[in-house]
Amino acid sequence: MAENADPAQEWNLKIQPTSSFFELRLKELWAYRDLLFLFVRRDFISTYKQTLLGPLWFFIQPLLSSITFTFVFGKIAGIPTDGIPQILFYLTGLTCWNYFSECLTRTSSTFTTNSSIFGKVYFPRMVVPVSNVISNLFRFIIQFSLMLVFLAYYVFTGANVHPGPLILLTPVFLILMAGLGLGTGILVSSFTTKYRDFTFLLSFGVQLLMYTTPVIYPLSAMKNSSYKWLIDLNPMTPVIEGFRLAYLGAGEFTLSDLLYSTISMFVLLIVGLLIFNRVEKTFMDTV
Amino acid sequence: MSKAIEVHNISKLYRLGAIGTGSLVHDLNRWWKTMRGQEDPYQLVGQVNDRSQKATSPYVWALKDISFSVNEGEVIGIIGKNGAGKSTLLKILSRITSPSQGEIRIKGRIASLLEVGTGFHPELSGRENIFLNGAILGMRKKEIKAKLDEIIDFSGVERYIDTPVKRYSSGMYVRLAFGVAAHLDPEILVIDEVLAVGDAEFQKKCIGKMQDVSRSEGRTVLFVSHNMAAVKSLCTQSIVLKNGMVDFEKGDTELAIQHYIRAEISASKILLRNRKDRSGRGRIQFTAVEYLNGAGEIVPSLISGEKAEIRAYYQNPEQFESINNKIEVSITHPEGIILIQFNNFLKNFPLKLNHKEGYVSVHIDRLPISGGQYFINLLVFSNDLLEDWVIHAGSLLVEEGDYYGYGVSSTGIKADHTWEEN
Fold first, then answer.
1. Is A121 close to B93, i.e. CB distance below 8 A?
2. Residue A14 CA to its chain's centroid (Å)
3. Domain stop point among B220, B239, B263
4. Interface pTM (ipTM) of the complex?
5. Which among B27, B93, B105 has the least Cβ separation from residue A14?
6. Which of A253, B156, B289, B376 would bridge with A242, disulfide CB 3.0–4.6 Å?
7. Same domain, B91 and B168
8. pLDDT confidence of A3, banded at 50, 70, 90?
9. What's the pLDDT tens digit per position in B90-101?
């Protein structure tokens, strides 16, 4: 095949049907870091232009959800909250959950929403999901500060809330939420390119997933439940419980739980990346 | 001279039709076979991509065993009619999709321009979009920064550079987009027909820029186009693709274009006998349409600015005679606008139409419409009564030619004219 190729010639790019399966191509992603930040900037500008309230919208949504949860799950259903003021309890859970689920849902539509760009030019497709995760961080920060305001209020009024030293683990929790969302998202996105069924499954699935995560109930309330194994299996469980323990002083969280979440995240990310890299090569034929 | 690109037996298999449950079965079958080290079963049933023939297999080779090599600094044109595989080849070269078989080796940084202004965001300012678009095309931020002034200058939108591009006129938008593209700095540039943008003056500027780039900076360029005038002026060598295969090996552009035009001549009559979507009494009916070039050869497409003939075949089984016969051949834009009406009454030319089978011809001296896809409509009256009316009797492909004789393409209707300045 290579009889007319000059052996001394160095090729720096080979285009082949399939590359080796075990190739994460992170170096290439790094080479495109400028694009990554330009995408984040674009998302930021385009979201707030021509809205009156701008980022304020991100306060309103979790606040209303927390109030609703307080009524439905707290007052009517009477689900305990570990002695934490209800609204603060739900707000903490939702702050974490929203970041995770935003990362997941936005990432999972990577191929379908960007097909017009992807069909015209090549760049490592992972740039888009990673930029999504970073753009969403901004939204997280807004919701997080809202949560801090409520926390400060309850600490000063002497409620049963005790932030602890685990607060130092906040960056770790954040990375776990982002990583789990991203990992699951790229897996789903790889499947949606050909079979759109997964799109329908996703919005439904995310909702179901929330109920197997201690967002509206504390893990301690599930001690005797026969579904506890399902909740324990969910790698988001330790993240939210740990986050609550850190900021509110109530939650069931051990270091081995943290390890479980971390390992799950790496497995999801690596498997997701391998499949994603494979799909990106031919998705234009099937999208 | 060292090679910049080597293409080895590239093939691409596509599945026709929709993706649904059937494709899941095929996927599983393929996965099972390849897992056991067998050949992909669907690559065996792939067919040559000839769109005029009805497919018997749902798999088709959009490209089959394409091989060629490009030396550093060469400017190569890739010609072929729609569906010949040009775009697929471009997509593979640009890594938008990967080949089913074969390998391409590339030396140097490659950038592809399949469209100008990819990723432009309407809310962002011109300046911000330069950075975004540049980064999408593979430039680093500092490279863009270094060229920013040059890009702004080239596009001539300095005044609006901090205005969101949604407020731009379409011309400004395209100029800015092309400005970024023209300042890309890769060793190899793959270009689709993006030159067909903007006003004539700007097009000339772009072609000039391309020529500068390839000649003085010694850049390798692959240029895919329908625009024979542009290919002629830019490319020294060309390749002709047909039905997904190389039809003319890399060689002199002039010869390649001749080969391309001659190869397409092979009969392509549009038959109308079985058309049901027609109205009229039907004593006279159209049976076929044909396009012919200046040399009287049947061609699948006409070239703007050159001699053309449209031939409409009719049948008059009863051979009934009438004096007031009127035939109208019109060319419409895909959006339905009539561009040209040819009618024997307009030229006061009486038609008898009394043969059992016969044809009428419209001879056009210099085809005045620009490159694109159009429709032909046919209409016949006898004694002011509608006999036959076929809307969209056939599509008409017009290739952009050199109407004005200066190698610059234009859009819209063309007309002979002169200029004066006082």
1. no
2. 34
3. B263
4. 0.82
5. B105
6. A253
7. yes
8. very low
9. 889 888 888 888
